[in-house]
Records
---
Amino acid sequence: MDQNNAVLLCVTKLREEEQRIIDHLAELGIQVQVNLDSMELPLGRSEDGPFGLALIRCLSQKNALHRTQFLELAGLETLNSIKAITICTNKIHQAIVFEKSGIPQPKFKLIFSPAKLFEAIQEFGDLCVIKPATSSWGRGIARITGRECLEGWIAARESVDPNHQAFPVLVQEYVEKGDYDIRVVIVGRTPIVAFRRVSEENWKTNTHLGAEIEPLTINEEIASICEQLVEVLGEGVYGADLFFDYKQLRYVVCEVNQNPEFAKSWKIHGVDVAYHIAQYVKDVLVRKSKVSVKVNSQ
Ligand SMILES: Nc1ncnc2c1ncn2[C@@H]1O[C@H](COP(=O)(O)OP(=O)(O)O)[C@@H](O)[C@H]1O
Ligand SMILES: [Mg+2]
């Protein structure tokens, strides 16, 4: 492999998404070594190794975080960055960072014990959403519609989590978002495509739960939120989930995913996300090689 011109692709398994990224990288002359979660990581001196970059596409957020930490400590640049992955794999981290940075998001509270949840739901007018810090595909996300509902939520967890290890949890106001949320895919600094995820049956509009995809034009407000997100998280590959809040008449950020899936959606909206990712990887490698040529010639 060419010195520093290959990519280490960290995955749990090679899905359609990753295979397509590999094919596009090959067309751009970039070699890829696939690294499964079960495999050893190349943690030697990174400047001597073949890899210019590690692309992190592990399914499990825990694996993504751990493997990125190891690679980063060994000196290999990762996409996304360790900072971005640390924030994006934790909904509480996101809420804190977005608050600090003035990124619009639903009103929220961090709650550290079950008893405190009762006060929190009152503050949100007996309608709110409880979220574990780490989750995806809508798992563990619960809409709470009053005291009795909350008692049920607490009771259902008591036997499986008697020491309340799952706390703190994030409590958000329930946003009147219509029957959809908005997914924007960002590559590098650019929002490359947006679409609505529409569900008439389920208030959770994850595509995994059956939401339908409807392409959407990226307007100025959406573009401006994406710019803010990139400012805060750094360049990278993101799936930003937004709501249009029909009460406040503004867009808010629900969450940002660090490993957006696109196998199903790109066939509907037609934007080849894998191509954009491959092209961006190439740009990063070229940028890096220019920097190292400059350093070496000084
Ligand atoms: N505060 C909220 N108000 C209304 N709907 C919400 C709220 N939070 C989440 N949802 C719905 O639940 C879905 C899953 O929540 P999300 O925070 O994105 O978790 P996940 O990581 O599991 O996708 C969202 O796509 C959205 O449809
Ligand atoms: Mg989501």
---
Amino acid sequence: MYADLIIADPPYEQTSLSWDRWPAGWLTAAASVANAMWCFLPLRQFAMPPYRGQEFAAAGWRLSQDLEPAADTAEDHWTWEKHNGSGFSTDRLRRVHETVTHWYRGRWSAVHHQVPTVPGQIRPSATIAHRSQPTHTGRIRSAGYTYGPTRLARSVVRVRSAHGTAIHPTQKPVELLDLLIRYGCPPGGVVLDPFSGSGSTAIAARAAGCRAILIEADEAHCTRSAHWLATT
Ligand SMILES: C[S@@+](CC[C@H](N)C(=O)[O-])C[C@H]1O[C@@H](n2cnc3c(N)ncnc32)[C@H](O)[C@@H]1O
């Protein structure tokens, strides 16, 4: 494998813009360079024609998980709320979130995944002991049970959008990419972004101690990315 993780934010073909075309065969090409991938793609792309999920499966990708937004402000949630939203209909709710799907190939146990944890809740056993045990758990310990010092981070995160500072019209927040990279790429590993836009993935990869390979069709975006990387 040439890369440890792919971060892909492909054109969805949602608009008539010339760059907004789904590149045929890119999922098969991606499968030849890495066995793990985060991909930004709306649920609609899977549930409605052209049913992109079938293309993932045909290229050997298996869905591991998805990150979804929620109306929750807890620090340990992974939500990304867009500043203005991107809904194209006036009779639907304003869409201010993006779904990020995680894919892998081969054995899950062979795929790097460093699950982040957050501070847990410790309850003295004595407190628990005063309560009656819920019938569905049975008797776990003689004096009740305690939570550990950490627990898994939840699948929703709230990060600031790149609104106001973005150098690309669909730029993803570096803070969100940082989380995706730290989860899916080993320290010092290589992240490949085949639709790199602003180069945000490289900024996040560098912060996470990883290397990055960027591919971008638009030369002007490449020039702006290079400048951002050089000055950040
Ligand atoms: C959704 S944007 C990516 C934005 C990026 N994630 C960021 O944070 O800035 C998709 C990018 O893919 C580029 N693109 C479109 N078709 C491409 C292709 N066939 N190969 C490489 N890049 C392509 C577009 O020019 C556009 O910049």
---
Amino acid sequence: MTDALKTKTAPEGEKALKPLSRAEALARVKADPLWDVVVVGGGATGAGIAVDAASRGLSTLLLDAQDFSAGTSSRSTKLIHGGVRYMKNPRDWGLVTEALHERKVLINNAPHLVHPETFVLPCFKKWEREIYTVGLALYDMMAGKASLGRTKSLKADAAAARLPGVRTEGLMGGVEFFDGQFDDARLNIALIRTANQHGAACLNYMPVTAIERTGGWIQSLTATDKETGESCRIRTRMIFNCTGVWTDSIRRMVDPDAPSIVRCSRGSHILLDRSFLPGDSGMLIPKTRDGRVLFCIPWHGMTIVGTTDVEQREPDWNPQATEEEISFLLETAAGYLAKPVSRADVKASFAGLRPLLRAPEGGSTAKARASMRSFPNSAT
Ligand SMILES: Cc1cc2nc3c(=O)[nH]c(=O)nc-3n(C[C@H](O)[C@H](O)[C@H](O)COP(=O)(O)OP(=O)(O)OC[C@H]3O[C@@H](n4cnc5c(N)ncnc54)[C@H](O)[C@@H]3O)c2cc1C
């Protein structure tokens, strides 16, 4: 390891390490050091690993093919939650408890980017209020000290008052509960900057194009600077493949015959005017016709409605919501909103691809997701 590459966290009282510019990071790469860690992918997973590695004093290089966070990590439903939908299966409660704890850690660590949010689940059937109150009270209890507020059962008038914009005709009541909301892309960039401050070199527009093996061990990889077209060989002790839905393409750089382990499920969202849900609370629609939950959430002066779950054959750098998905979101939301909503009300749409573990026997994306319990972030 060259001296220039010895990355240490700044001891207390000393000035923090100066973040590297792109040119400086490139110069480091060109100096051909042996990196302790190379992280491929600058989404939430890669950025988190880079912070961890660099803050342990390991020389760390992070490479992304496009902008940091341009993949799934800027295309989420913007929730930091324990996963209410997982409450229905007690086998998933361990995952929910862990995620609820992490929710509080994130709120404490980045209060400017992650905040508690009130949600109301409107009930149009008599039994729904009791059932969902019990489920959501349990959800809150599982948070323990990390609770963001107590779940409350609401009568119809209170539910309508807490959730302006909800359809009041036939409304039997509601359940108020608390969860977290965040700015996914900004949190991702904050992590990249933190890694950078700990001495990691982080380069975007620098796709990994080949991985070289010697004697059965990965010794180096090749990355190409998209700005200049120049390729460089990078030596490393360890590679983390954090490329989400592109995981297979990296694995096949090592073994062209490697079986696929990841499949993509597209989740789309639409943005409506804030007037459809003008209050400060989000709405949880507990069951769509394909058995999912749907969120309508205040977001930068708009309302986000999402999401869907549609199998997609191949990864896509810029996935798009289809007209069918937009109709499904509008149709589902219309059943819960007081104001009539149509295609003309859709201001924008965006879609993200969930990297799902491919179930060996095939089967539904929901089944594949159930087998990915160790990846709570992929569960929304
Ligand atoms: C519709 C939807 C809604 C979601 N909602 C939520 C939510 O509300 N809350 C939540 O916590 N989670 C949510 N998730 C899950 C969460 O967004 C993902 O788990 C997370 O973003 C995955 O991050 P990642 O870093 O693994 O992948 P990505 O963000 O996709 O990052 C992978 C990166 O790898 C890079 N890459 C690919 N190939 C190469 C290469 N050859 N060389 C270099 N770089 C490469 C890509 O450019 C990309 O930046 C949602 C997911 C979806 C799809």
